[in-house]
Amino acid sequence: MIIADRKPVDEILGMVSDAKKILVLGCRGCVTVCSAGGDREVEILASLIRLGMLKQGKKIETIEGSLVRQCDKEYIDAIDEWEGQYDAIVSMACGVGVNFIANLRPTTRVYPAVNTSFFGGSAEQGVWKEQCAGCGNCVLHLTGGLCPVARCAKSLMNGPCGGSVNGRCEIHPDVECIWQSIHDRLGRIGNAEAMNVIAPIRDWSTAGHGGPRKTTRDDLTI
Amino acid sequence: MTFTPDIQAFCCHYTSQQTIAEGREGLKQDGLPGNVTFHRVVCTGKLQVSTLLKAFEEGADGVYVVGCPADQCHNVKGSQRAAKRVDAIKKALAELAVEPERIEMFHLERGFHPEFVEAAQLMNKRITDLGPSPFKGEAK
To answer: B92 to chain A: which residues are within 8 Å by CB?
Structure first.
């Protein structure tokens, strides 16, 4: 899922400083699961915005809502329920949601309440870790299912760097060296020889360096 | 001008049961400040961050939570969860440049203990010293 973190309150207050009525809008997709932008977080942020404004001697009206997802046109249409009731939307969805509102509501002011961080999973309660970089050219079949693009600090493709010590990364000693883990795992699953395959120079053109990416499924388009 | 703070206390049913059974007069005689309002909850772990923030929105100058000792919660981890949420609010208050000590967590034993009254006295003194909540300014 997409992992996000709430922005500092003062940054959000700066965005809405001239608004009188705002719609704080959560998303019931990824950001609900990672506790960054679901119904509960909407309630908390709306309260913090009201308190922040009170401290500044101002008053702001907040409407709290959430959409099934903010990354589908059909669900964005549900915003019409609050039509005319707000000056601006504070979206607690990932950046995709903010973009979708901006794309589909040309005259609506929309602000991001979270920083969209990475694609990850819940390692333990309250802890999320990056697992995938969305690079568009998956090599997990060659690396035992562990991603060197996302999980190696240098995104190395041919084994660990010289800084791998006792299975830890030299950049972040609290992080495993993913190449050590790939090596160990390939051995455990009877595929140790895969470590000897030299990965060619990688084509990063699928990784977003050439501008926004797009996928079209002809079998689904009408 | 003297300032009497509005203090809202959220207490675990088990922790506060016997103390609150003393009744308002009894508690007064025990030294409990009259400006502390108690809210008994089934477990402090049930308290949401938004509930505690709401207390500030509704005019509280200080808020505190009284739950079981961290390792003796009737619901195993309820008071630990409450402490985490109080910490989250401390951070949020700091983000708003408001004194984080306006909210506090206390872990107290069940039954009547002077510590229950002392927690109220401590918060009353602390919040009196801090002055009125910065959220109470006149909104334009």
So the answer is: 9, 44, 48
Q: DSSP labels for B4-59? A: ---EEEEEEHHHHHHHHTTHHHHHHHTT--TTEEEEEES-GGG--HHHHHHHHHTT
Tell me if chain A has a CB within 8 Å of the CB of B91: no
**What count of residues does chain A have?**
222
Q: Is residue B116 part of a domain?
A: yes
Q: Residues A102-157: pLDDT tens digits? A: 999 999 999 999 999 999 999 999 999 999 999 999 999 999 999 999 999 999 99
Q: Which of B47, B50, B51 to mutate to test the interface with A (most CBs of A within 10 A)?
A: B50
Q: pTM above the 0.90 mark?
A: yes
In a domain, B1, yes or no: no
Check whether domain A2-118 has CATH 3.40.50.2300, yes or no:
yes
**Model confidence pLDDT, tens digit, residues B26-57:** 888 889 999 999 999 999 999 999 999 999 99
Domain with residue B18: its CATH number is 3.40.50
For this complex, say whether ipTM is above 0.95: no
Contact yes or no for A58 and B139 at CB 8 A: yes
Partner-chain residue, chosen from A43, A55, A58, that has the shortest CB–CB distance to B96: A55
